[in-house]
Amino acid sequence: MEECYGSLNLDHTTSTIRLFNQAPELPGALETILSLKAHNFKVAIGHSAATYEQAREAINAGATMITHLFNAMEPLHHRNPGIFGLLGTQSEPAIKKPFFGVIADGIHLHPTAINIAWNAHPEGFILVTDAMPLLGLPDGTYEWTNGDRIIKRGPMLILEGTDKIAGSSITLLGCVNNFLKWSGVSIAEALGAVTSTPARMLDLGTTKGCLNPAADADLVVLEDFTDEAGSAQLRLGQVWKFGECVFDDSGDGRPIICFSPRINPSDFFKLIFMTLRV
Question: Tens digits of per-residue pLDDT, 122-143?
Answer without folding.
Answer: 999 999 999 999 999 999 999 9
